[in-house]
Design a protein that fits this description.
By secondary structure, this protein is of the alpha+beta class. The protein is built from nine helices and four strands. 26% of the residues are buried.
């Protein structure tokens, strides 16, 4: 029940106080991202942690003119890979073999499963990797709420400008979503007292037994 209470408490905070969140709590949120389940465990994304005021101001001015960018404690910028090359895949399989003491036969079979997806011309690989990234966004949002930290997922930004600010090689990766972390400004945020608008359970869930 505590989880449901926490999810009812959280909302997409639009105004923050600028107060910094503890580094220990930030570490927990980042660990939740690291533990996020992804297809085959490939984790085809990285997270940029931004707290430098000059950088946040530049993102606000050039990419995302939402006040919460300037008011947040930290801004998490999720970068999704554009493709998974042999070096990335083999590095992952090598680590799997080490941690699980897997046989060469098992690793070969796992490699084959992954390649059926990433080598399939009918699969939009970037779209597939973006979807994995959004799972991590969800885990980060819930972890923040569990810690009493507000969060605002942000999609509405100029991705080309943000890629340029971060000096990303867009042939390999792109910024796809952001998460502002901080504490709600209870005096300035007009959304704080508004009820959540969600579908009733009977319209959301279809039960098949």
């Amino acid at each position: 029940m505590k989880l449901i209470e926490t999810l009812n408490w959280r909302y997409a905070t639009k105004r923050m106080t600028g107060e910094k969140i503890p580094e220990g709590d930030l570490g927990i949120i980042l660990e939740a991202i690291r533990l996020t389940p992804t297809a085959y465990g490939l984790q085809p994304f990285k997270v940029v942690v931004a707290r430098n005021k000059e950088l946040l101001d530049e993102i606000f001015k050039k990419s995302c003119p939402q006040l919460v960018i300037q008011q947040c404690s930290h801004l998490l910028i999720f970068k999704a890979k554009k493709k998974l090359g042999p070096e990335y895949l083999e590095g992952y399989l090598k680590e799997m073999k080490r941690l699980r003491n897997s046989t060469d036969e098992y690793i070969a079979g796992y490699r084959s499963k992954i390649r059926k997806v990433i080598d399939n011309p009918q699969v939009n690989r970037f779209s597939w990797m973006i979807r994995q990234t959004y799972i991590a966004l969800g885990y980060a949002t819930i972890a923040a709420a569990e810690l009493g930290i507000d969060a605002a997922p942000i999609e509405g930004f100029d991705s080309q400008a943000l890629n340029e600010i971060l000096n990303l090689n867009t042939e390999k990766e792109e910024a796809v979503v952001m998460l502002a972390l901080g504490y709600r400004d209870e005096k300035e945020d007009k959304l704080i007292q508004l009820a959540k608008v969600r579908k009733p359970m009977e319209l959301m869930v279809e039960r098949i037994y």
